[in-house]
Fold this sequence. Notes:
- The chain has helices at residues 2-11, 14-33, 38-47, 59-67, 91-116; strands spanning 36-37, 71-78, 81-89.
- By secondary structure, it is an alpha+beta fold.
- The chain has one domain (10-126): Winged helix-like DNA-binding domain superfamily/Winged helix DNA-binding domain (Arc Repressor Mutant, subunit A).
Amino acid sequence: MSTIHYMVYSTDGHHAQIMKGVLDMCLLATIAEAPNYGYGMVQNLNERGWVIAHERSIYPVLKRLEKNDFIESELVASTSGPARKYYTATDDGREILRFWEADWRNVRDGVDAVLDGTQPTETESAKPRRKKPAKKKPAKKSTMKGKGEKQ
Length: 151
């Protein structure tokens, strides 16, 4: 039985799909705690028990979070190599994180109840959630650069 379980587990990508489904939330949560750069986030997640095999796997997620105005980035000079791109959570990012956390807890509690064969208990996560923040229209960017502006 354990051999069959291992074969299915290792070949169907189920674990990867679960991890992919919550990576946005976990990255945003670490960024909301403190600004960080890519490799620093991977280390932070690994220390907490979430093993990310390749740092490059987080960059598409960071790009998506930034495109949705949930995070901002800034290049910061480093004393130990090239400049690092640090990410910071925006107000909209902190708001959506609260929504995602409540949603995650509801899903987790429901799945636990199904797997345990019990009824879900009334928890903080069962409380009504806030509305998702409205998506802002992107500001038009000027193609003209004034003196002192970044090129």
